[in-house]
Amino acid sequence: MANFSKSQVPQFSVEVYQNEFLPEGGREVNAIVTVTSTGGGTTGGIPLADAAPAYGAGQGPGAAVVLMVDCSGSMDYPPTKMRNARDATAAAIDTLREGTRFAVVAGTHVAKDVYPGNGGLAVADARTKAQAKEALRKLSAGGGTAIGTWLRLADRLLNSADVSIRHGILLTDGRNEHESPEDLRATLDSCAGRFTCDARGVGTDWEVKEVTGIAAALLGTADIVADPSGLAADFTVMMENAMGKEVADVALRLWTPVGVEIRFVKQVAPTVADLTARRTEANARAGDYPTGSWGDESRDYHVCVLVPEAGIGQEMLAARVSLILPDPSGAGTPQTLSQGLVRAVWTDDMVASTSINPQVAHYTGQAELAHVIQQGLDARKSGDFDGATAKLGRAVQLASASGNQDTAKLLSKVVDVVDAATGTVRLKAKVAEADEMTLETRSTKTVRVKK
């Protein structure tokens, strides 16, 4: 990762929303931490492909992108699927910002570097984009699926360049049948923190948990493109978002005093992602949680800690949350981009100590929404229709109460809603496979709390 000055880094802010008041004996402290990045990832309305690089040669982080295209035999059924994949990848290449390093990988049971084909990365300009699109025209379907090999090749290619923004875009239409789940997990573990990756499943023959698992491990997005004709538009948006990233490897650092236990740290907007197990120790009292790459955007995190019991009138700092940009050499002092404080105050005012902060309440509900959708769909697949009805009914209730209209619409394709407010639903007798997979894939998407 290249080093760069504060003036080149987008400005980060941290806001903490919580009810700091606890009753006597109370220990659990919850806070929603809103992190906002501004001043990076914008081109003043100029199309990203036409915008000048945000940093001059050798002066900034630079970006590299590897596009991984499924070329397994199933991509020929129907034949239009492979054509749509080629067209979508070409659209993404057109969206590359000038100067971005890039490569195209054809993925089957092995991975092949089809452009530039020399074990490295090309630099995006009119000539190399045209060459890459010519290479795409030669792609054909045949062979199996071993996604770990695609990711390992992408990792080698991305790390051949001295850039800080390293990003993968992965398209698959099938299950990862030519390598074990353990091999894929080992690959994801080795790639985590080295690059981010957006994953897309096209059609309905792929495994939702595989694709969402790849995106979660590599801090990217996952989605379904049920109709292959929609791939080009989706790939264009994905690449625009990738080109908008201006700073990588930002960590959420949580410092806690002696005696404080961390229950969990979760991203709760724009999607739910549990980061608790991804902590790396920074020092004796602090740990870092990865957040990936940032452009102009805002995300919310839910921090929950247990503090020691204390008497009425006492107060303490329960945690300090900081945004950290590590020194790329590993030798210097990390840069603190912004920070906020989580407090605990013990009171005998029952109204103060029992009120739930609106942001905390909202995102607790959104996390439960994602969980019960997964439970409901799993129950439906296993034939537990009573359990599925109960869980998906609760999901309808939560989506309605929180104003998550997109999820409510997806739920309505799986259940008939009798009363959204009470969560009274009936399972639909017939559900299109694409509708069920869309609900599962997008179950972790949340809506922001209305402030």
Question: What's the helix and strand layout?
Answer:
Elements: E1 11-17, E2 21-22, E3 28-38, E4 63-70, H1 80-95, E5 101-107, E6 111-115, E7 122-123, H2 126-136, H3 147-158, E8 165-172, H4 181-191, E9 196-202, H5 208-217, E10 222-225, H6 231-243, E11 247-255, E12 261-269, E13 273-274, E14 280-283, E15 286-294, E16 297-306, E17 315-325, E18 335-346, H7 350-354, H8 358-382, H9 385-402, H10 405-411, E19 415-419, E20 424-427, H11 433-441
Parallel strand pairs: 2-18, 4-5, 4-8, 8-9, 9-10
Antiparallel strand pairs: 1-3, 3-16, 5-6, 5-7, 11-15, 11-17, 12-13, 12-16, 14-15, 17-18, 19-20
Helix pairs in contact: 1-2, 1-6, 3-4, 8-9, 9-10
What do these coordinates show?
With 451 residues, this protein is of the alpha+beta class. Helix content is 30%, strand content 30%. It is built from eleven helices and 20 strands. The strands form four sheets. Strands 4, 5, 6, 7, 8, 9 and 10 form a seven-stranded mixed beta sheet that branches. A six-stranded mixed beta sheet has the order 2-18-17-11-15-14. A five-stranded antiparallel beta sheet has the order 1-3-16-12-13, covered by helices on one side. The radius of gyration is 23 Å and the shape is globular. The N terminus is likely disordered.
